[in-house]
Amino acid sequence: RTRWTVSLLGNILVALFYAIFLYSAIKLWIRTGSLIGTGLVTFNTIAVACLLTRRRPTGVTGSIRNWILAPLTVSMPFLLRPIGSTSWPAIVVSTGGQVLGLCIMIVSLLALNRSVGIVAANRGLVTRGPYAWVRHPLYAGEITFSLGFLASNWSHLNAVIMLALVLAQVARTYQEEVLLLRDERYAAYRVAV
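Below the sequence we write its predicted structure tokens.
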């Protein structure tokens, strides 16, 4: 019953944060007519749908570090601040990195489907799509997207946040690996991929 209550509260928070994000994106579109946020709206819509319909895990991490680190890692990109470079090479690199990262993120989410989560948990082994070649493509896509953003929005603060984000994603990956290695199927998948 406690786990169900925590899950329900988590789902309500996810839906609330998504509603605030969507409201801001719609206001920006009405004010400017710019579709620049369309990719992020698409990604976040898929992410929220996957989170709200996710499978029950067969195992969840007991690591307090992961319960703190995972939500922080998900929140860190919101600390990045747009500055906007006028240098066309920076804009090209930034746009390319963000589009590539966003595509990787969307394809990874669609492959994960109902196996997505925030803290390390075993919701079933996913080996389709990009998971056939890389064990953590969603994190790779997030890092690629954020580095693309940094290319045209350079500041010391953004660089420090990006460094923290990359280190946190590496630590999060390690936490997931520790939990998933308890499953023999994942151990075999890890050797192959």
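The first helix runs from residue 2 to 32.
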